[in-house]
Amino acid sequence: MTKSRGLTHTCSPIRVAFLLFLFLNCVYLLTSTGRVRTMDELDSVLQADSLLLRHNTAIPQIVNSSILGFGKTDRHGVQRSAWPAGHALLVLPWHAVGHYLLAKLPGITNDNADLAFTAATCWSSATFSALAVAAYFLLVLGLGLDPKSSLACSLLLGFSTPVFVYSGWLYSEPASVAIFLIAALLLFGSAKTISLARLVFASLLLAFSIHVRPNNMVTVFMFIGAAFVLDRSNRQASFRYRTTAVLVAVVAMSGALYLARNYALFGNPFDFGVPATDVTGKDLESWHNPVWKGVLGFLLSPGKSAILFCPPILLGIIGLPLLWQRNRPLALLCGTAPIVNLFFFSFRTQWEGGYCYGPRYLVVSLALLTVPVAALFQTPPRWLSPAFWTAAITGFLVQAIGLSTNIMEDMVRNHYYDHHWDYQMSYSPITGQLQLVWKYLHYQPQHLGLGWDRWFVLLRAAGASARPLIGLVWLFLLGAAMFGYQTWKSVQKCQYTSSPARETC
Fold first, then answer.
1. How many separate domains does the chain show?
2. Is residue 60 part of a domain?
3. Smaller CB count within 10 Å for the chain: N or C?
4. Is the pTM of this model over 0.90?
5. Is residue 501 part of a domain?
6. 377/373 Cα distance (integer angstroms)
7. Is 67 helix (H, G, I), strand (E, B) or coil?
8. Maximum distance among all alpha carbons in the chain?
9. What percent of the chain has pLDDT over 70?
10. Residue 171 belongs to what domain range?
11. What is the pLDDT of residues 458-468, one digit of tens each?
């Protein structure tokens, strides 16, 4: 057990985290693309639309239409998605804002109303990414880090990792990162005895993550292992393995609910609604990929390398032993989740994650691997400052390039897939995006949706009036400036006492 210092009464960590959340949410709303391109993104829009308007999760919208869905007909003859409705439930409030508010603004016509409520739905990723960074701030602050260093590490996560670039798209990764970082904060953010309320809430979050994306179960298992390590160190509890037992029970019930859903829809608990092939005729959901190919791609390829698209993990790897000394359950979680997910997804036929920027399937575990960066700040070596800034600047540039223009334009043009729909290992989205940036600095886009990838640019090109769009942009700009200033002022007020205040394992 090692002791850490406590904050004086002049500082409210919750207030700082809330201001940081508001600041990042405004920034991410400005940089959001506000559009959907892939089947996985479109699936959440379709299910949210059905929940809002028809109060069910069926997606009959794709029948007799040009929409490319991914699912199949259930035993009642109703079209269903291959994915559960967890993500659609999470984005439902934003979808409602799009339908009943954004699409009704003056200057938004029926011709571009669908783009308006899709943009609002996409904004949910901005909120989830901001929530993830706020939870991260509280987590590393609980490790004994001073507030300014905690803020620096949080901004590293928020702007120099795929958390930033995925805040602009409607994949489920931002929501999953938020769920897992909040659960890590609740379970492992303090050495104090975990209250039953915190334990149940964390367990429910982890259980729900399965319904956001079933593959999240892999990371949930790592949480269970970390909870077991935490329980083993707690020799004073009347029920020593309470954390593990509650977590396993709640997750098991969630899994049973998922199987019951499959039985109700498809007549078989192990029929997950995944079609044999996608619309191209390719089997994407099998697990026959040579593991070496996936591992090589995730580590070294120019289009999917975890190191290239998330440079801060190098500092996280170096900081893991130091985190292990302070908080073994958290270190175990942050160290094993990336490794297990790396090999798990390397077996997947579609290991590259479909059309996406960087190693999409590793985004969640890479976010966890940035937690050990905080351990380096507690006794910072001389090389930390230049290494930190190098990782921060490099990572930020990589994410900004991904958010610059429509990634699909380059992926289709430069053959992200070959004619057999196999991923091209030599493909580089970074160089492709830079070519498009240079192109659109000199030429106007010829088609709707090309060019600079911002929701307000797209809506304006689709015919929406400039006045409401400018108003929203100014609102988010002022919010980012105000909340950013308040966050920095609040952090400056935070000071540490010199006397020990709490302990960590």
1. 1
2. yes
3. N
4. yes
5. no
6. 7
7. coil
8. 70
9. 91
10. 2-441+476-492
11. 999 988 889 99
